[in-house]
Structures are given as C-alpha cells and as structure tokens.
Amino acid sequence: MQFRDYWQVISKRWWIMVIVCVAAVAVTVAYSKFEQPIFRSTVRLDVSPARYDYGLTMVIENLLRQYSSQLQTDKLANKVNERLNLDLSPESLRSRIKVSPISEDYAIQIEVDDPDPNRAKDIAYAWADEFVKQHQERMAPIDPPDRIDVTIHDDPRPGELNRPKTRQNAMAAGLLGIVIGAVIAFFLEYLDDTLKTAEEAERYTGVKVLAAIPTVESVEAVTTGREKAAKGRTKLGDARQRT
Predict the structure, then answer these.
(1) How far apart are CA 155 and CA 127, in angstroms?
(2) Is the pTM value of this prediction over 0.70?
(3) pLDDT recorded at residue 227
(4) Where does the pLDDT of residue 97 fall: very low under 50, low under 70, confident under 90, or very high at 90 and above?
(5) Residue 147 and residue 57 share a domain
(6) Based on C-alpha coordinates, what's the Rg of the chain?
(7) Are residues 98 and 50 in the same domain?
(8) Over residues 153-175, mean pLDDT
(9) How far is CA 122 from CA 1, 41, 85, 130, 154, in A?
(10) Integer Cα distance of 118 and 158 in angstroms
C-alpha cells in the first residue's frame, strides 16, 4: 500500500478511531475516579564513613545493597507497626515500602505509599529512624574511626499524590485508543476485497483500465426524476398560456 492508500483508509474509517479513543478515555477516567488515591512520602538515608578513607568508601558501596535488604525485613516492619499502632501484618506493611540504593550519592531512598498522606510521612520517618537505631547498635562494638554512619538526610514531608494520575492515564488511553482504532480500521479494510478505483483494478489485475461504467441512479429514481421534470414543464406551459 502507498501512503495515499493509508490516508484513504483513515479518512474513510476515521469514526472507528474516534469511537475507540473516546471509549478508552471514558473508561480510564471512570476507573481513576473509583480508584483509591495513594500518596507517597520519601525519606533519604545518608551512608558515610566516620573518616574519609578509600577503603571505607569501597566498603560503603558494597554495603548499600546489604542495607537495602535489611530495610525490608519483617523485624523492622514489626517495630514500625508497634511504634505507630498500625495494626498491619508485616507483609502488608512491607508491600507499601520501596527501597532504592543510590550508589553515586552513598545514600538509600525509602518511598512509602499509603492512602493517608500524613500516615505515609509517619511510616517513612519511623522506618528510617528504627533502621538508624538498629545500625547504631551494630556499630557500637566497632572502634569509632572504623564505623559506618547512617543518618536521616531530612525529615519526610506529607505524601504527595502518586496515583491515580488521571490526566496522564487519560492521555495514554487516548493514544492507545487511536492505535487500536487504526488497527481495526485497517483490518476491516483488509477484509473488504472489492476494487473501488481504477488504480486498484490496474494494480491487482496488471491490466490498464481503458474505460469505466459510470454509476447511475436506480430505475425508480430516474423515473421519478423524469415525472417531476414533466410536471414542472406542464406547470410552466399552463402559466404561459394564462399570460
């Protein structure tokens, strides 16, 4: 197919693309309205050596993944649960936590998702604070110059809306609807094997078109048209005779 053929299909069946696009956007917006809002609060832990030594710096890079795993344990979840009286299972609480090590900054980012923005902030702070306390207990037997310090970079803020993002979802659904509508339109065109133009006939048969039979109206339409024309002439003749 040439570009002109694609354009003809789109111009012919554009309504399918519009219907699918509108339906996709409407469903997405309706789903977003009924979806429970989830807010995200973020806190950052800085990991630094007690003294700036190349060996300790290399140790921190290797410890970031280990600390990230320790931040996702049931033991830590139980401590936060008891501290805030959340009455949640460790699995349910851990499912709201996302931990990401940031190697280039020697830091760990903790993200907490919760329906309540203030509770998301409280969980984020308690989670980071409990881990810092555990870490300090582990570092206590080690000589101060050889310790690895973990501190809270800044207090977390109340959670910001993380989902649903209605506008972004609607835009994505609209684009997807246009694509799906286009696929449906071209599929219907593929099923339609009639030859509609002289160019299509030449392309599929390999024979040059010399003439074409023009489209004519039905016999009833032609007869009706003639009768109306005859009546019009009769009325015109009668009018002339009166004058």
Answers:
(1) 12
(2) no
(3) 61
(4) very high
(5) yes
(6) 37
(7) yes
(8) 88
(9) 61, 9, 11, 12, 13
(10) 5
